[in-house]
Amino acid sequence: MSLLTSFEQPINAVLIGASGGIGQALLQTLLDDPSVARVYAFSRSSPQHAAHLASRYPQQLSFHRIDLNEESSIAAVAEPLSGARPNLVLVASGQLHSETAMPEKSWRTLASDHFHQQMQINALAPALLAKHLIPLIPKDQRAVFAALSARVGSISDNRLGGWYSYRASKAALNMLLRCTAIEAQRRWPHLVVAGLHPGTVNTSLSQPFHSRVPTDKLFTPAFAAASVLRVLNGLTPDHSGRTFAWDGQEIPA
């Protein structure tokens, strides 16, 4: 059964960040959806099971490399999509920590390199993807451009502080999506631009913080993927520019 019943079929989907924990689950869910004709998957590195997927879905799936630190690489995303008219674009890439830096507990640990990298991957890269991909989206049918955001990007909901770079980058992402939605509405009246919060998902991104998360609030990647697809399936242009959680609740700015 399709999770994407509100789209005109067939669906041509673009997935950025296909090798991450949620990205791999989104990829599998899209490939299993009977409404999806083609998935153009992009990532810094191919998932470990890429060869298996490519052999299992030879007509439906194509893998491509992308470097989210370089606009030239982001712009090149459009090349394999020539004539595809994608009506679903999902940006599932993101960064919370690295081998050398963890989320800041205090302003004392703010470091410019880490901050700039978080802003690049979590905010600027999705905005540049919108810049280069929205012009390929059909103007005469329902379409969605969505990026994975986070509840901690909400300014009004911030009661704990900390995580300066990640919070700032997700707040910036939400603003960039809002700006994109306003501009796109003039020429793409059927397009929804939205942020999606998948909840806390059992992936390498959140792994260092699992001990703080109640068991019933730590979701599997498959559950998170299905949840955000159900949410975006129900969004209309009236919802464009806003951010929604995995359960469909709007996250305040």
From TrEMBL:
Gene3D superfamilies referenced in this protein's UniProt entry, alphabetically: NAD(P)-binding Rossmann-like Domain
Protein name: SDR family oxidoreductase
Pfam families noted in UniProt: adh_short
Domain of life assignment: Bacteria
InterPro entries named among the record's database cross-references: Fungal_SecMetab_SDRs, NAD(P)-bd_dom_sf, SDR_fam
Positions of transmembrane segments: none
Source species taxonomy: Bacteria, Pseudomonadati, Pseudomonadota, Gammaproteobacteria, Oceanospirillales
